[in-house]
Amino acid sequence: MKKSQKLIIFILSAIIMLGLMYLGPAYYYAHNYSDQKCFLFGTYINGIYCTGLSVDEVLDLISKDYRPKDTVMTINDRSYIADMSVIGYETDYRTPLIQILNDQNPYLWFKQLGKEKKEQIIVPIVTVNEEGFDSFFDSLDLKEEKPSLNDVYIELTENGYELIDGKKPVLNVDKVKTYFLESIKAGEDIVIIDDSYYDRQEYSVAEKKLIDYYNELELHQRRLVTYVFGKESKRISKREWAELMNTGSDLITRINPDMIGSENISYTIDENKAIDFIDEFLDEYNTYNNRYFRGHNGALVHVTKGNYGNKLDIKREENWFKEFVNSGLDYATRTPVYIIEAKHREKNDFGDTFIEVSLDEQYMWYYVDGEIYVETPITSGSYAHGGTDPRVVYVYTKIPNKWLTGPTWHSFVKYWVAIQGAIGIHDASWRSVYGGDEYKYNGSHGCINTPAEAMKKIYDKVEIGTPVIVYSIEKNGVEEK
Fold first, then answer.
1. Mean pLDDT of 89-115
2. Is residue 161 included in any domain, yes or no?
3. What is the total count of domains within the chain?
4. To 10 degrees, the CA torsion angle through 153, 155, 159, 165?
5. Could you tell me if residue 444 is inside a domain?
6. Do 108 and 23 form a contact (C-beta atoms < 8 A)?
7. Residue 153 is assigned to a structural domain of this protein
8. pLDDT for the residue 148
C-alpha cells in the first residue's frame, strides 16, 4: 500500500476516533437517565458536586433552609414588618436549577475540561401565600377615614388649636397593598410609601395660607415648659398656650381661611396676661395659707391661715416666665424658687403622716404612713373664747408634764404637743366629756383637748414637723360642681 493511502487511512481513523471521543460524552450528557438531562462535568452548585446528576437528584441533596429577609414598609414615621414566616412563603429551587441546566450545552462538554472548579450559588424563587398576606395586611389597619367635609379651618380644642382639614390626603390602601406584595415577591427589603400613594384634592390659595398660618401657630403652642415640684411635674399644655396667644376679649374658637390677617391671634404674648396665667398655674402648689384639703369624708375645704406649706417666690416666677415667653426658646424645665418650704414639694405636701382635726365633728385622726394610728373625739375652743381658728400648722415641740398658765387658769397636763404659739394638743384631766356640742358652751381656750389614753399614743409617736390641719366645713367648705 502506498504511503499516501496509509496517510489517508490514518487521518480518517484519527477523525473517527476523535468523533467517537466527542460523541460519546455528548450522547451521555444529552440522553442519560432515560432522556433526563444531567449536569456537565465540573458543575458545583451550593457546595454540591452535580456532575452527571439530574435536577431531581440535586433537589434531593440541596439545603432547603433558605429564609428570605423580612420586608419593612415605611409610611411617614411608622414602620411595618412583613414577617415571611407569618405571611407564608414557598421556595422554588427547581426553576433556577433548570435555568443552569438549560444554559449548559451537552455538545460543548469539552469546554469544561481544564477549567478550575467554579461553584454556582442559587437562591430559590420565593412565592407568597396571598391568603396569609391578606390576613397580615388587613391586621395593619391602615384605612383612613375620608374627611366628611371639604372645609379647611382651624379650631380651638382641648389640645389647643388644631387644623381641621377636609381636603387632607388619604392613603390609598389598595394601591399600597399591591405594591407591598409585589415588593415582597421581588425580594426587596425596604418599601417606602411616598406621597404618590395618597389621594388628594387641590387647596385654594386662601386654604394654603391658612395651613401655613397653622404651621406657624403650632410652633408657638407646642412649646414645652415643665415645672418640677419634688417628685411631681406639671407642664403648660397646648390649650393654655393657645389661650395666651388670644389678644381679643373673647377666645377665638374657629379661624376660617378668609380670616387670615384679621384674627386676634398674636405670637407676642401680653405680659399682664402671662403674669395672670402663671399665678393661676402655680396656685395649687403655692400652699402656704392657701390650703385645699380633702378630709376623711371627701369634703373639700380651703384654709387660709397657719404656718405650714410651700410658699413660692411668685414675683421671681412671674419674671422668669415673662423672660421665657419673650426668649423664643422652644422648651425649658423650671424648679420654682421657694420662700418657705414644707416637708414635701408635691401638691400633697403633707405626705402620708399628719393630723386631721374636724372642728364641726369635734374629732381628730392621726395618720401614720397613710393608715389611721389614732382616732378620737376632741373638744376645741368654746364659743365664749372665740373658738379654735381653722389653720394649717405643724408640731414644733412636745413637752411632758407641763403647766399651762393663762390669765384665769393654771392647769397641769401630762402630754403637751404644741402646734402654733400657745395653741397645742394635750390631755385634759379636768374634762370627762369629749365631742358633741361640748365645745360650744364648755370648750377650751383654743387648744385641742384630747382624752389621756389617745393623747399618750399620739405623744409617744408624733415627730416634730408633723403637719396638722384644723378645719371647719362650715367655715372653710368649698362647693364643688
1. 73
2. no
3. 3
4. -20
5. yes
6. no
7. no
8. 66
Distance CA 7, CA 408 (A): 159
Q: Three cell numbers at 222?
A: 407646642
Half-sphere exposure of 30 (CA within 13 A, CB side): 11
**Model confidence pTM above 0.85:** no
DSSP state of 346: S
Would you say residue 75 has pLDDT above 80? yes
**Separation in Å, CA 41 to CA 44, 100, 101, 106, 422:** 9, 13, 12, 10, 112
- As a whole number of angstroms, the distance between CA 241 and CA 283 comes to 18
- Owner of C-alpha cell 411668685: 314
Question: Where residue 369 sits, what CATH number does that domain have?
Answer: 2.40.440.10
Residues 365/356, Cβ–Cβ less than 8 Å: yes
Residue ranges making up the domain that contains 129: 25-139
Instruction: Please indicate, yes or no, whether residues 465 and 362 belong to a single structural domain of this protein.
Output: yes
- CA 347, CA 285: separation in Å to the nearest integer? 5
Orientation angle between helical segments 271-282 and 314-327, nearest 10 degrees: 130
The residue to which cell 410652633 is assigned: 219
**246 three-class SS:** strand
* Residue indicated by cell numbers 414588618: 81
Q: Which residue has the cell 384639703?
A: 293
| Cα angle: 137, vertex 140, 141; to 5 degrees | 110
Chain centroid offset of residue 361 CA: 45
pLDDT digits (tens, 9 = 90+) for 401-422: 999 988 887 899 999 999 999 9
Q: Whose CA is closest to 132, among 89, 191, 98? A: 89
Listed ranges 4-13, 107-116, 127-136, 154-163; the one with the highest mean pLDDT: 154-163
What is residue 35's predicted lDDT score, i.e. its pLDDT? 45
Say yes or no: 398 and 368 in one domain.
yes
Q: Which three cell numbers stand for residue 125?
A: 424563587
> Per-residue pLDDT tens for 193-209?
998 999 888 899 999 99
- Reduced to 3 states (helix: H, G, I; strand: E, B; else coil), residue 320 is helix
Helix (H, G, I), strand (E, B) or coil at 61: helix
Please tell me whether residues 310 and 234 are part of one structural domain.
yes
Q: How far is CA 449 from CA 265, 270, 413, in A?
A: 60, 53, 10
Helix, strand and coil content of the chain, in percent to the nearest 5, comes to 35, 30, 35
Tell me which amino acid residue 425 is: I
The Cα-based distances of 286 to 64, 204, 229, 232 in angstroms read: 71, 50, 10, 14
| Inside any domain, residue 358 | yes
